[in-house]
């Protein structure tokens, strides 16, 4: 990459921050956290490094900001799917499809969550564990309300379903270069049928 960013006119602080985040997201997605430097991000954003450091104290903090945005997007989408219908079968399908739609975004920003290369980083690990736990808790609340299962039993099932969504969607997204990759609706339906064959064995009892 070039190390001589093109100078841009002064932008309002919020607009500049958004510009920097957009540029950083692109660079992190393309090259990963470890292969990306603040110089690379400054060049991509066409700003000087001092301008970049005015908004973010370092690469790690910038990455976490981007990660938080993607977590919020995924949570909002999945939460909306969980609340979209009282029919459990349709709700499970909608939730799994929402997960697949998230990883199908053209900007491939899902990689900031699932392919960061920072699995052992405490801040990243805490965010991912929190995300999985919140998904599992949301699913468990529905299971508990609909069945006679105890909360901890429902939470175990919730974690299982959350893990299934994450693993299947991540694998599907990673097949982007393969012409034989199933279409999104087909892939989501396959994951749904696997999940429903399990969760459907716990019918509503309340």
UniProtKB/TrEMBL annotation:
Entry superkingdom: Bacteria
Domain HTH tetR-type residue range list: 14-74
Positions of transmembrane segments: none
Keyword annotations from UniProtKB, A to Z: DNA-binding
DNA-binding feature ranges: 37-56
Signal sequence, renumbered to the chain: none
Record-linked SUPFAM superfamilies: Homeodomain-like (SSF46689), Tetracyclin repressor-like, C-terminal domain (SSF48498)
Designated name of the protein: Helix-turn-helix domain-containing protein
């Amino acid at each position: 990459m070039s190390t001589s960013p093109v100078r841009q006119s002064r932008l309002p602080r919020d607009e500049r921050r958004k510009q920097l985040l957009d540029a950083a997201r692109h660079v992190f997605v393309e090259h990963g956290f470890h292969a990306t430097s603040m110089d690379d991000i400054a060049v991509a954003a066409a700003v000087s490094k001092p301008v970049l450091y005015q908004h973010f104290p370092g690469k790690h903090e910038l990455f976490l900001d981007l990660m938080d945005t993607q977590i919020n997007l995924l949570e909002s989408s999945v939460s909306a799917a969980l609340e979209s219908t009282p029919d459990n079968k349709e709700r499970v399908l909608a939730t799994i499809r929402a997960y697949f739609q998230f990883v199908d975004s053209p900007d491939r920003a899902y990689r900031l969550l699932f392919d960061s290369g920072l699995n052992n980083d405490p801040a990243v690990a805490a965010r991912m564990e929190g995300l999985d736990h919140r998904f599992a808790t949301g699913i468990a609340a529905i299971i508990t309300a609909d069945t006679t299962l105890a909360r901890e039993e429902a939470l175990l099932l919730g974690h299982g379903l959350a893990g299934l969504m994450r693993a299947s969607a991540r694998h599907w997204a990673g097949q982007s270069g393969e012409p034989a990759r199933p279409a999104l609706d087909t892939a989501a339906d396959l994951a749904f049928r696997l999940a429903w064959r399990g969760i459907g064995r716990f019918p509503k009892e309340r």
